[in-house]
Amino acid sequence: xxxxxxxxxxxxxxxxxxxxxxxxxxxxxxxxxxxxxxxxxxxxxxxxxxxxxxxxxxxxxxxxxxxxxxxxxxxxxxxxxxxxxxxxxxxxxxxxxxxxxxxxxxxxxxxxxxxxxxxxxxxxxxxxxxxxxxxxxxxxxxxxxxxxxxxxxxxxxxxxxxxxxxxxxxxxxxxxxxxxxxxxxxxxxxxxxxxxxxxxxxxxxxxxxxxxxxx
Length: 215
What we know:
Layout: E1 2-6, H1 20-25, E2 28-32, H2 41-54, E3 58-61, H3 70-76, E4 85-88, E5 91-96, H4 112-120, E6 129-133, H5 154-163, E7 167-169, E8 178-182, E9 185-189, E10 197-204, E11 207-214
Parallel strand pairs: 1-2, 2-3, 5-6, 6-7, 7-9
Antiparallel strand pairs: 1-10, 4-5, 8-9, 10-11
């Protein structure tokens, strides 16, 4: 199974043309939040529909900038994964949108326990599970700010270490586009799509391999 991971679109889809073939040919597009600039629901709807014109196989969660009301929009489009589980190609996909608390008071922030609960209550077969969260796990290559601070979720990090899902996709920290591993779990932050960054993940025999692509 080939998955293209997008995150932090922030209202800018100029790069859709550049990645058109990659998006069309994959089995699934996973959107890891911050679809809009400032939570405009019509903007979110428009962007997701544009992506679905290329490939209708889409799962998405809202980011901290999208606001809680965006969940309803994603649900109406049939792509919402926030606090839900969907099974595709014998893999369980589980999602949690929003982010942990920030200094900026953004529209959709949650306690770590709330984010963890969204994921934890749905997991049954970790060896066949992929997690999509906007928030990265703590102290990995995917959660370090430009000032060098690790700002990810400690609860999610412990969860990954304990459960060992196949892969964990995230975003949120723009400058921390990277790939890391926790045991056998692939952790991937593709970086901002608005800057032409995506992740491509291949799942084969229960193992995940990823790469970052920029155009």
